[in-house]
């Protein structure tokens, strides 16, 4: 069996994934071009029911107040260390399919990287609500894609099926959080594990 390409799982929801993305693109672009990129998100009720019927359980757990407060402090510290100016977004009615399924469409059209950059900027630097289809439509326009197609991706049955396949992939890979990096049998979880992943990938592709 052929060895799978190195890969990383990202989420637009996670500030740690945003910082890992920034680090990856700023300092390790050669590795970014050698790996596969997979989205990770919490499914809505419909997708959750489909996954349950297929015997797929995803490792989501409720966050305690103490952990939430720690993350607020930790993220501010990490952003400051990187010289990043961030805005903590307010998610009133998050629908993560809106942005992550739109990514699948953008990636199919060859503009996945541009879409990721624009969504991360909108969420973590401008404080926009990426669960709002209008925000996704605006991002699509800015990167030269059909705003209607991307902003309605979450209602397209074919795209939703692809979304289920993506969630099944993270289930099979044993992904339990983001950012999550995999190279062969080696797994790396967390933004602070990115250097180890980079070294692993470079050691066998140099």
TrEMBL record:
Residue ranges of every copy of the DSBA-like thioredoxin domain listed in the record: 9-199
Active site: 14 (nucleophile)
Protein's gene: cip20
One of the GO BP terms on file: glutathione metabolic process
InterPro entries: DSBA-like_thioredoxin_dom (IPR001853), GST_Kappa/NadH (IPR051924), HCCAis_GSTk (IPR014440), Thioredoxin-like_sf (IPR036249)
Native organism taxonomy: Bacteria, Bacillati, Actinomycetota, Actinomycetes, Kitasatosporales
PANTHER family found in the cross-reference section: GLUTATHIONE S-TRANSFERASE KAPPA, GLUTATHIONE S-TRANSFERASE KAPPA 1
E.C. no: 5.99.1.4
Name this protein carries in UniProt: 2-hydroxychromene-2-carboxylate isomerase
Keyword presence, Isomerase: yes
Domain of life: Bacteria
Family: Belongs to the GST superfamily. NadH family.
Keyword Isomerase part of the UniProt annotation: yes
GO molecular function, a single term: glutathione peroxidase activity
Keywords noted in UniProt: Isomerase
Reactions performed catalytically: 2-hydroxychromene-2-carboxylate = (3E)-4-(2-hydroxyphenyl)-2-oxobut-3-enoate
């Amino acid at each position: 069996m052929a060895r799978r390409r190195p890969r990383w799982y990202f989420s637009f929801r996670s500030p740690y994934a945003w910082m890992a993305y920034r680090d990856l693109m700023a300092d390790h672009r050669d590795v970014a071009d050698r790996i596969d990129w997979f989205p990770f998100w919490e499914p809505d009720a419909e997708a959750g029911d489909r996954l349950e019927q297929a015997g797929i359980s995803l490792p989501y757990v409720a966050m305690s107040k103490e952990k939430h407060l720690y993350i607020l402090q930790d993220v501010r510290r990490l952003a400051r260390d990187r010289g990043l100016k961030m805005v903590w977004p307010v998610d009133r009615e998050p629908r993560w399919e809106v942005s992550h399924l739109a990514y699948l469409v953008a990636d199919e059209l060859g503009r996945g990287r541009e879409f990721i950059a624009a969504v991360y900027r909108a969420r973590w630097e401008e404080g926009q609500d990426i669960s709002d289809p209008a925000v996704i439509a605006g991002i699509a326009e800015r990167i030269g894609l059909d705003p209607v197609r991307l902003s309605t991706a979450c209602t397209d049955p074919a795209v939703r099926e692809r979304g289920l396949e993506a969630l099944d992939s993270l289930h099979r890979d044993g992904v339990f959080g983001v950012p999550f990096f995999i190279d062969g049998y080696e797994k790396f979880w967390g933004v602070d594990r990115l250097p180890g992943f980079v070294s692993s990938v470079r050691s066998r592709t140099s």
